[in-house]
Amino acid sequence: MNTTKAVLPVNLLNFDRKGLSAFFVNMGEKPFRATQLLKWIYQGNITDFDQMTNLSKSLRSYLNTHCTITAPEILLEQIASDGTTKWVLEMGLGNRIESVFIPEEKRGTLCVSSQIGCALACTFCSTAQQGFNRNLSVAEIIGQLYVAQKRLGDSKRITNVVMMGMGEPLLNFDNVVAAMNLMMDDFTFGLSKRKVTVSTSGIVPAMNRLNEACDVSMAVSLHAANDELRDQLVPINQKYPLKELMATCKEYANQGPRKHITFEYVMLKDINDSMQDANELLKLLKEVPAKINLIPFNPFPNSDYVCSSKQTISRFKDILYNGGIITTIRKTRGDDIDAACGQLVGKVKDKSRRHLKLQQMGLANAI
Ligand code: SAH
Hints:
TIM Barrel, 2 domains, 33% helix, disordered C terminus
């Protein structure tokens, strides 16, 4: 009986520097091959092993036979009136994800997805309504940066990355950490740790592990200042309530000089936008080095919420600011192409069967 299995080629975009060094050492090569390869791929934009002239002929031949450099394919590109660019990327088996580039005068930010869909059920987020299929691989995460920079060319540099696209990054911990370490590597994009931000709904055990694994900026999707409301808006709060979350945030911020946590707070009319809410928020954040980013709610089809008025958001901001917390209002970007926060949907083959569950509950129209 023939038991030989076809061996799939190894996609080298799946390795950070440490992983790539180990890969080369394993095959009897020197570890510095890793930095040579990273430079060719990410700085030289070379994917043809035969053009990697500082590798030996035998190594090139091995790589040709056993390895690939495969980034996700762009299926669709949309450019909004404000220059925000959204790419829909093919993930196979009927799945698609989205990445968004937000140009500003002095910087260019790429919003990167970490999962196909999302397993969490935040009630104001359209990604949540899509259900969940799977985690993205390292190649599929770093690949978003790779294809975006290639597409933008040299005139528009990606200077910042926010892990704020589809998915909960800290529920795909290992792959997200490897991809973030890779984008901060001097031999790839060399982004500084202050310019890479991971956003989380508050996965406390993973937040506790993050600083050891990868030193980046942290944003926490707070959205409510008491457990009663947060349990509804961000249901993972039922597992990791505010007391635990705040203790973890405090510890994270205390791990380095000038470190702080950015708290994201979506402004929902008559839900979390009263002056009492603002005061409660001030009290909650009293002991945490914090900045607050107020996000005007971006509507999506069949969403139940309405965005707070400009005046309310501005008054809410004043209370926080006067209470001593740096507070900004996030500019809504790319909403004419559904590229704004919470509007990314891609196409998700829902393995979590959320559609079915909602149908059974008679809630199919809610999505
Ligand atoms: N799961 C991670 C990453 C998503 S980041 C997290 O929860 O942090 C996307 C940010 O946009 C989060 O702060 C999220 O709460 C917010 N958001 C989601 N839906 C939104 C909507 N419809 N309007 C405005 N912001 C939204």
